[in-house]
Specification:
By secondary structure, the protein is mainly alpha-helical. It is built from twelve helices and five strands. It folds into three domains: 1-155, no CATH class; 159-226, no CATH class; 253-304, no CATH class.
Length: 314
Amino acid sequence: MLGEFAFTCRDLLGWDETRTFSLLCGTSTTSTEPARALADVAALAGPPVRALLAQGAPADEVLAVDEAFAAVFAAYLGEYGCRALSYELAEPSLEERPDLVLGLVRDQLDSGFDPGTRGELARQRETVAAAAHETLGGADVLRFERALERALMAYPVREDNEFFTVSAPLGLLRRTALEVGRRLASRGQIPAVEDIFLLHPDEARILLADGTSARDVVVRRQREHAWALANPGPASYGHSPGVRVTALDLPAVLASTRRAVDAVDLGDRFEYLPADMFTCTLPMRRTTWCCLPTSATSSTGRRTVHCCSDCGPL
């Protein structure tokens, strides 16, 4: 549908993809909803909270200084926290990272994040659509409107798909695994709650039923895991795939404008390109960027509004 829309705009209006997709910007809202809701939380941060956030104080200390802010923050985590930050269930989900979310609050306050950007994008879409209607006539208008309607339905699907089929289900699975881990740990069957991730699902179910100990299994797998981390092996086997091409291999003309930025304590590195795009230069391992602001600022202070399609929308 998006290809059809792009070809329609090219054939009827002579537009390039940038102009064409300006009619769709801001219409996929599933992944950006938490960032807009976080703006309401940030607006309630009083001077004591802001001061501690600026100092990088621990989450417990920040939340203890203002009960009203802490209550709103807890409600936010309750609404949006059940989202995985990785494909790996053993890694904490958003609700287990209050430090990360408070860091995002701080970043919104520092950058002057404006949740009203959504309205601005809507006005921009209306302006572009009006320009198209002024240019077209007769059957061309009908063809354009049909292609636009279909594109508006298709464009948000990728973000909706990520939430409903990846980050939310993985968040629920982690909750379930941790509950099983708590029960086994309370009975002394495994050393700690997090050790549940060293067991296979079938093993965990059997342990719940028969009450036997898996402490020896956990210890052995902890050692195996440590060995695997210390001995990762070669990057490839068999015929060499050659040099991996990344954004770092772009023409030297981009060198003066490329900046590396960190994705808000999530550990992934991105390359900042002139086209206001973040291009991931590491193998993708994050499932969602739903918790990130709808815009970000590079180390140079220039704001960006989009992320590479491989890593999900910002």
